[in-house]
Amino acid sequence: MLQVQASGVQLTMVRTNYNRLSNPDLWARIQEYTFPDKADGISFAYWLMSDTGMSITRATQAIEEYRKFAYLCTISSRRLVPSKIVDEVWHIHLTHTKDYWGRFCPEVLNKELHHVPGKADSQREDEALTHGLYEREFGHAPPYKIWPQLIHLLACLSGLFVAGSSIFGLVTYKNGLYLIGVFVGAYLVAHFGDWRFWRGDHGGCSGCGGD
C-alpha cells in the first residue's frame, strides 16, 4: 500500500507497477494533465464533490481511477465500461467541452474519446474486458471502493451469515437477525462509502469508443 497526499487529503492507494504499461508515454501525459476548474475557481475535485455528494477523499480517488479508465480506452480498440463512480467523473469532465475536446483528447490522449450509451445485454462482457485489461496494465484489480462489484457484497453476506449462525446458539433467532442486519449496514457504510453509487448491474451506464 502507498500513502499519498493529494488536494490536501491523505489517501491510501494500491501500489501500481507502471513498468508493465504498454504505453508509458501516454500514461505520463495523462498523469501530468490538470483538470479544469469551474468558472468560479472551484477545483475539479471539489466540483465533483459538490455535484455528486462524494467526500473529497472519494472524489480524489475517483479522479485517479478516471485517469486510468481514459488510458485503457485509449489503448484498446474494444468498448470498455466505467464504474458508476468513474462515469460520474467522466460526465462532469465532458461538461467542460472546450478543455475536453480542445486539450484532453487531442493533446493528451491523441484520440477522440466518445461517451457511448451501452446495452444491458453486453454490459457484463464489457465489464469483464475492462477489469481484465485494467489488471494487465496496472498490475492489480480495480479498487472495489471505486469499481464495486456484486461479488464483494455476496462475499460479505456469506461471511456474516456464517458468523450469524454461531450467534444463534447464544441469542434468540430474532436478535440474531437484528445483529446480522447491523453488521451488514456497518460493512456497507465502511467499505462502500457513497452507497448510492454502488450498483451491481449498471446496464444503463456508458462505455467508451474510439474515433
How would you characterize the overall build of this protein?
With 211 residues, the protein is mainly α. The protein folds into two domains: 2-145 and 205-209, no CATH class; 150-192. Mean pLDDT is 75; it is low at 1-14 and 190-205. The longest helix has 20 residues, at 56-75. Strand 1 (2-6) and strand 2 form a beta hairpin. It is built from eight helices and four strands, in the order E-E-H-H-H-H-H-E-H-H-H-E. The strands form two sheets. A two-stranded antiparallel sheet has the order 1-2. Strands 3-4 form a two-stranded antiparallel ribbon. The protein has helices at 24-32, 44-52, 56-75, 84-95, 97-109, 120-138, 150-167, 173-192; strands at 2-6, 9-13, 114-117, 206-209.
Beta-strand content estimate: 5-15%
Series of secondary-structure elements, N-terminal to C-terminal: EEHHHHHEHHHE
Please bin the fraction of helical residues: 55-70%
- State Rg: 19 Å
* Strand elements, count: 4
Quaternary structure classification: single chain
Order of neighbouring strands in the sheet with most strands: 1-2
Shape: globular
